[in-house]
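Example 3.
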Amino acid sequence: MTPTNRTIVLASRPHGAPTPDNFRMEERPVPIPGAGELLLQLCYLSLDPYMRGRMNDAPSYTPPFELDAPLTGGAVSRVIESRNEGFAVGDLVLGHLGWQEYALSDGAGLTKLDAGMEHPSYALGALGMPGFTAWHGLLKVGVPRAADTVVVAGASGAVGSIVGQIASIKGARVVGVAGGPDKCRRVVGELGFDACVDHRDPGFAAALLAACPDGIDVYFENVGGAVFDAVLPLLNVGARVPVCGLIAHYNDASYSGGGATDKGPDRLPLVMTTILKRRICVEGFIISDHQAEHGDFLRDLGGWIAAGRVRVLEDVVDGLENAPEAFIGLLEGRNNGKLVIRATHA
Amino acid sequence: MTPTNRTIVLASRPHGAPTPDNFRMEERPVPIPGAGELLLQLCYLSLDPYMRGRMNDAPSYTPPFELDAPLTGGAVSRVIESRNEGFAVGDLVLGHLGWQEYALSDGAGLTKLDAGMEHPSYALGALGMPGFTAWHGLLKVGVPRAADTVVVAGASGAVGSIVGQIASIKGARVVGVAGGPDKCRRVVGELGFDACVDHRDPGFAAALLAACPDGIDVYFENVGGAVFDAVLPLLNVGARVPVCGLIAHYNDASYSGGGATDKGPDRLPLVMTTILKRRICVEGFIISDHQAEHGDFLRDLGGWIAAGRVRVLEDVVDGLENAPEAFIGLLEGRNNGKLVIRATHA
């Protein structure tokens, strides 16, 4: 049987939530490396909420995906052929690759991983972009002080789960927000948050108030929407709001450049008034701007994971063919922890 | 003729824009100082937009004015009787006093001014709270770099007029936003802004775009409303938005704690999305938090005014009896520069 290179391409751009027909699986030939090139076999593919933005044909901090071309993402791969003296067969590498089982590379942009590392997929999560995002956003933008109350949206997700654990290490009281009682139980029981509130519960706002008797000093914004509305009245004077993501809005027209089409009431005057009266700082950040801090991040988080002070929640889905459905579920909050696809050959 | 102490009290709380019947003039006896007290005669009274917030019975960064009691504000007064050895008759003092022609004080909270200063009213404006607000908000929150484009709302007002001139000194390209062609002409002609755009002009957004060919790096927010809507799409990656005031909203129910009652569309998702994608920092501040910087401010701004590098725009209205009408006009943008009341005896 000739091996085929199963590849998932963007078949059409979603309007609102993505659906399976926005994706198409193609069976392509396995490519043959030319001089200086490597053939990579996919081990783990990262699925991340920011990818939804790239499915729109709108300017953002990353360019749009092209129609009929493979979607791309962070991936851990194994070198299975090498015509590049910088890499040997068997090397484990991290790079930004297509949603496909085999890929060519000239080595540019690849980072070699320890070939014997116990959890190669961590390079896509806790020790990768989401972990780095959590570390920078909390410590450099949120800047929690000991005894602060830190509220973390998306608390069981790839970023939020790390944010809360770092905040605990720094001495803060940590309150998670997650979707559903099961996730909330894991956030408290497995990740050690002080409390976790279910944003799907009709009593969410009251429960958040009860969980934050001293108000909120840092709100790590990952979701937007109704969670932000409940957080706003609880923000203390001098509160910091790192804006890392807005998953509740990724399917909205306003996110893809469609303007303020969301129906009213207009919440902006209330938000700006609160920012003014309580001297709040709301600050967006994109982790790719902060590569200079990457070594510090790896030292910190690698140490905490090794010491058992940070636990990693992973949601591993087998088979590249399941990536579209898993990605659709990610935007609906169906994942538990960092979502990765494990390829058949991993 | 026995001198009377004309006093303006808060007769009722406004709903929306204040009207003359929210104020009442009373003729009270001139008080007699007791042991340790001073009798002060009003010279200049400061009228500032933040006072609108104090007319509401709602928590804010300053407590509400009380009904049937004198409104209060920054004032420059002359000591005309002293039973306090710290002050002599003839001393010129700055303090937070009532809207009244005579006041008692035990000296607490008063700052002596140079009794021979050429422009005592500057202590309420360029060298007072509004100037300090401008200096701190621009330099400590906005942090302009040379060649940045700085857009200043309320450009002919007490704060905005100083913000823009400091930004020019720091090497920025400075674009004002003001209400009406006359104000815009003064902002460019007298204050030296590089451009000024009239927010009342139907072509405002296009004119702002034309005046900011390299986008906006710092937007000094004084007004809110439609000006912010035009600024938002022009904000550059890494832009800073110090939120100093929201005069367009001071008469809104949402400002006085009434919640998000403004009609849609809801602009918040678009704003948060922009903050995220362009890594923007929106930060509220209140100048009373930053007293430690006051000496640096006075040294900087005093030097620039003395050297002719900062010009002071003042709108002086004679007679305390005209304070209510002048204050109503301030919220409508009818003033030109820092609005002060000059008392009959000044």
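The domain at 129-293+298-304 of chain B is CATH 3.40.50.720 (Rossmann fold). Chain B touches chain A at residues 60-61, 221, 224, 228, 243-246, 249, 252, 254-255, 259-273, 275-286, 289 (CB under 8 Å).
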